[in-house]
Amino acid sequence: MTCAKLTLFSCLSQAVAAPGKLSKVEYIKTDSNQLRFPLNEELYNDEIFITEKAIQVMKFHGSYQQDDRDQRRPGQQKKYQFMLRLKMPAGEMPAEMYQVLDDLSDECGNHTLRATTRSAWQMHGVLKSDLKTVFSRIMNKGGGTLGACGDLNRNIVATPAPLVAAPYADARYYSRYFAELLAPQTGAFAELWLDGEKAATVESWKHDLDMDAIRAKMREDNGTGVSFPDKEEPIYGETYLPRKFKMGITVPGDNSIDIYTQDIGLVVMHDRSGNLQGFNVMVGGGMGRTHNKEATFARTADHLGYVAKDKIADLIKAIVATQRDHGNREVRANARMKYLVHKVGIDEFRRMVEGYFGEKIEPYRDLPPWKYMDWLGWHEQGDGKLFYGLFVENGRIKDDGEFRLKTALRQVVDAYGLDLTVSPNQNVILRNIDPERKKDIDAIFREHGVKPNESHSINKITSMACPAFPLCGLAITEAERHMPDVVARVDSMLISMGLATNVTMRMTGCPNGCARPYMAELGLVGSGPNMYQVWLGACPNQTRISWPYLDKVKDADLEATLEPVFAFYKSKRKRREAFGDFCDRVGKEAISKYAETYVLGSTKKSSLKPRVTISPETNARLRQLAKARGCSAASLANEIISLYLDNAGS
């Protein structure tokens, strides 16, 4: 690096602490030989599990080792199994790949699939002995898992609406493009799962990409050290990133991706003719935190600036390089890019990025207000075809008694060859549907006990939960299995209190925030067995983070905890003020003070008063006569009607 460039980067040595002892995962990555060791040895031994070092490497391959706590028995070995997460840029999956995954979930998994909050499918319950079979079948059908987990760029989410309009098409295209620009290049994946051979089918998302140009862009270095042209991993080097890295892309106004929670959030910017001009760029969002560690926190992204479309790849590389070289590799709990942005500030971070980018970043451009979009129900794509957004409670595709969603979805995919999109809100969108098939598809779901979206409460539709028990090793308490009961209880409470309002609710079994609870109007974060932190104050369009209201609330005390908050909202809200906006306006202290003196059960649904409709002319005459007599129009109307009825009955 030249003296001039050292001067440009002199601020970094002051802003970023000198390196100390690295976290143990950093040494594991260094020793892994680009994600090969010790997996290449442990996959073939007789054990039903892999060791901690192999677990860390396995994450990069798209899999976590888990233990089924429901099946644990004292004195017995843990019930080890594996979860696989697919790489699916923009959440898109061809029908043929879904059929393979559905088959594998029955042959080698736990007979369910899970739609994640990062627009991907997860398959649970895979035994170690079946891993190679599952990996190879997915790869040979045009799928993949490499990069779905681990310390690198993970699955890129995009607005899930399959509209043909240019902004939406560009959001999907650049999701695929950046998924490959930031894809790991190690040969370990093919070596371990395909015996070094190429997959039989190219990954589905690569079909419209110029892969030679993307590979050249990966290795292109502008003299700032943004890339390593001669290394196996030109973007990541030997140790990849300090921690997981998440990206999302959407169009102006469509916040279906929780854009402020992303490490990098991109907004496609078009002119009035629909031509892509460039991108607004946000940086530094993230949800994960640790209980009782104030140095860890959820954070919303800052506005970095705007970049023209022909420079966006260079800027993305520069942001990733900044995190790669200056992110915290000593304390893993503080390794996400949000902590780097928070530590140095957005202005200093921008200068750091510009050092790799090689030029100034333009100011962030104005946007219309954000709106939460779920894209559920039937919509026109814009090309004569329809798409259907199907609500999937907490993302779980399963058959359970008369509710046979898994069978119904497979039947629809088989019958009509429909491609799917997994949304960032754990729902499924069926694409490219001929309009004449609409009634048939509705009938298939109905016949399998899958209720139409509109039959669910709005609070149920907007709720989310992470998997938690029994498989997630980080879970402290229930989430997915308990959330339906909590939503029903809150709905019942709101009805009894006469509150017809939508409250966005999200629940996680631990503070890591996979279901993004800190962006919900009511966030429930596992803090102990059958206990949750209660978070309030976020907004319906997911642009403001919440704050902790109470810690360690027992599940049995949830109604008693929330009723005073809802009562305060009912009595003091402004016209059309959302629940989260109200909580943010009045604040924690005011809510706590109100709750101290509130009497449980004192807020009930108002009895509806009988109404009689009269013409405007009669109403005017009634009010005029009431004024002359010095009484209210209501009392006068009651007197007149009573006299009339008495005379009519005599």
Quick description:
The chain is α+β, with helices and mostly antiparallel strands.
Description:
The protein is of the alpha+beta class and 650 residues long. β14 and β15 form a beta hairpin. The protein is globular and about 100 Å long. Mean pLDDT is 94; it is low at 1-18.
Low-confidence stretches: 1-18
Sheet with the most strands?
Answer: 5 strands, antiparallel
Strand content is 15-25%
Can you tell me the overall shape?
globular
Span of the ends, CA to CA: 106 Å
- Based on CA atoms alone, the radius of gyration comes out at 28 Å
Report the structural category. Answer: alpha+beta
Number of strands: 22
Keywords:
650 residues, alpha+beta, 5-stranded antiparallel beta sheet, 21 helices, globular, disordered N terminus
